[in-house]
Design goal:
Length: 338
């Protein structure tokens, strides 16, 4: 990418849960912005949003929208939009950083977490970089130092995913259902197939014929791709929980070689972007309320799994809108301009 003093960034899906977070992150990190183009659906066109001391108008995204002069397009809207605009913008020379699953497994699209596999950004023939699923990113950040230290053989992960992973409408639904239940009114489920308030759903995405959720398949394939470990055995169960923000993961790891919990703690603490938050004697363990609004991946409950040889258990919590999506995308743009 040609070095410039400032860049034109387009955010497609600017008014959504991830889009709004992207604006905050560009501001916090003082990203060298020459200009910002904000795109959403017709219903948001004309609204303004603030970033870096200026007001920017939201434009309706249409096939006629011009992207001339845009350096980066951060897409976080729908799969259809990623499919329609990702290829087109990439071919026109815009660097596309895409939050959907549309391109993630394509061999010529890097799937990037800068702290883990920055080297993969060297090859991006289609000008498209994908960011992983919001549960894969924290998982690979926790696995990477353990894999380097002792070789990860098998992973069993169960996720506890907040409703913000589904977007703003799901956050509203949780709040509305909670209010309704607290005032003895009937609840209405529109976004999810069942009530989410005071409940949890062992179902994210669509079911395959084998009974796996698409979210579970994404975690397996994306982790193997990012860690360049196609033989790593991984199995996942993904659960939607009535939490507004932050995804949590119970991770069981089987290693090739022994690694004591204290050595695992040291390896994790040395990993950029990971915060070891682990002192059960003080009731200190990561919770969504701790990690909310934070950049780091929080890791705690690090302990031996005595039921297998070289087994470890961890509890990982991270802000799905930040490192799980918007922050990772902005960090990729920063990596590409460095
Ligand atoms: P809008 O707010 O105008 O509907 P979330 O993940 O929080 O649901 O956000 C989805 C984002 O994608 C929003 O910014 C939304 O815009 C945008 N979006 C959804 N559908 C379209 C569309 N057909 N064209 C452009 N933007 C869209």
């Amino acid at each position: 990418m040609k070095k410039k003093s400032a860049y034109c960034v387009a955010i497609i899906g600017a008014t959504g849960a991830v889009g709004k977070e992207s604006l905050e992150i560009l501001e916090e990190r003082k990203f060298p912005l020459e200009s910002l183009r904000l795109f959403a659906s017709k219903r948001s066109a004309g609204e303004t949003m603030a970033c870096q001391g200026r007001e920017w108008k939201v434009e309706e995204l249409t096939p006629q929208s011009s992207f001339t002069g845009v350096d980066f397009a951060l897409i976080s809207a729908t799969d259809e939009i990623s499919r329609e605009y990702g290829l087109k913008l990439g071919a026109a020379g815009v660097v596309v950083i895409d939050d959907s699953a549309v391109f993630r497994m394509d061999a010529d699209v890097p799937l990037l977490v800068p702290e883990v596999n920055a080297h993969a950004a060297k090859q991006m023939p289609r000008n498209i970089v994908a960011i992983p699923n919001c549960t894969t990113t924290p998982l690979v950040m926790a696995l990477k130092p353990l894999h380097d230290a002792a070789g990860v053989k098998r992973v069993v992960v169960t996720t506890f995913q907040s409703v913000s992973g589904t977007g703003s409408a799901a956050m509203d639904e949780l709040v509305e259902q909670t209010k309704a239940l607290m005032s003895f009114r009937d609840v209405e489920a529109k976004v999810y197939p069942h009530q989410i308030a005071f409940n949890l759903l062992p179902h994210i995405g669509s079911f395959s014929r084998d009974g796996e959720c698409s979210e579970e398949v994404k975690i397996v394939l994306e982790t193997q791709k990012i860690l360049e470990a196609p033989a790593m055995r991984i199995t996942a169960t993904t659960v939607r929980v009535p939490v507004l923000r932050c995804h949590s993961e119970a991770v069981n790891v089987e290693l090739e070689r022994p690694l004591k919990p204290n050595d695992a703690r040291a390896a994790l603490a040395a990993m950029p972007g990971v915060l070891v938050y682990d002192d059960p004697s003080k009731k200190l363990y990561p919770m969504p309320l701790d990690a909310s609004g934070k950049d780091d991946i929080y890791v705690g409950r690090i302990r031996e799994d005595f039921s297998v040889t070289n087994g470890l258990n961890l509890w990982v919590v991270s802000d799905n809108l930040r490192k799980g999506a918007a922050l990772n995308a902005v960090q990729i743009a920063e990596l590409l301009i460095r």
